[in-house]
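To the wet lab folks,

You asked to see what we're planning to order before we commit. Fair enough. Below is the target structure as tokens, and below that is the sequence we designed to fit it. If anything looks off to you, flag it before the synthesis order goes out.
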């Protein structure tokens, strides 16, 4: 666990995090969660519809009748029909803001510019409406990039903490992530999109070595 001011950040593997602040338990892209002792979710945010980011078993494990589910329209089918307990499903599209349980959440796009399944067919198309999420917890902002390459929208971010993918293939690799950090200029970077069978854990160390003047926090996975 990493603590920044009054916020706790727990990495649950891959792109999955538990953020605790403002008295809330906020899960981001929960995936392959099996620990029944984890706190129940006040809010669950999913960046897009892929099973390793919008994972019904994991969301069902942490949800209660008071949990608010947040995601872009492409996640609605899963969130509405496969999650057994929830208070409501709240829409969050790129460039929108919502307030949920007193927490301001905003979003920018998340997409590939040069990583393709086949020629002209990106793994994460911009038109799909996937999101990178910014949590505004008091005077702290936490950016969870989702599955993305380095994109122009990052240039307008002002984030204390950036949770950024590093594994390559489907998302930014180490070199591109380092370039994204130079644009975003966060105080703290936490590498993700590794673990639970995704990418190499060593990529996080490579990023840390590539950015000697930036505070890169390499978290242990919490089961």
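Sequence we intend to order:
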């Amino acid at each position: 666990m990493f603590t920044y001011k009054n916020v706790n950040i727990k990495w649950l593997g891959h792109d999955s995090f538990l953020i605790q602040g403002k008295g809330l338990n906020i899960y981001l892209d929960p995936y392959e969660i099996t620990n029944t002792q984890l706190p129940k979710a006040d809010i669950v945010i999913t960046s897009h519809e892929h099973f390793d980011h919008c994972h019904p078993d994991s969301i069902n494990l942490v949800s209660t009748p008071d949990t608010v589910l947040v995601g872009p329209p492409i996640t609605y089918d899963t969130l509405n029909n496969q999650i057994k307990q929830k208070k409501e499903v709240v829409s969050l599209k790129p460039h929108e803001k919502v307030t949920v349980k007193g927490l301001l959440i905003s979003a920018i796009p998340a997409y590939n510019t040069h990583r393709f399944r086949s020629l002209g067919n990106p793994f994460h198309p911009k038109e799909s409406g996937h999101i990178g999420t910014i949590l505004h917890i008091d005077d702290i902002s936490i950016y969870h990039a989702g599955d993305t390459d380095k994109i122009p929208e990052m240039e307008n971010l002002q984030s204390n903490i950036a949770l950024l993918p590093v594994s390559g293939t489907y998302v930014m690799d180490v070199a591109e992530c380092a370039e994204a950090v130079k644009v975003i200029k966060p105080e703290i970077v936490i590498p993700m999109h590794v673990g639970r069978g995704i990418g190499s854990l060593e990529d996080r160390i490579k990023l840390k070595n590539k950015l000697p003047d930036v505070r890169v926090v390499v978290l242990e996975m919490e089961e």
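Structural context that might help your review: DSSP finds four helices and 16 strands in the chain. The two ends are 11 Å apart (CA to CA).

Thanks,
Computational group
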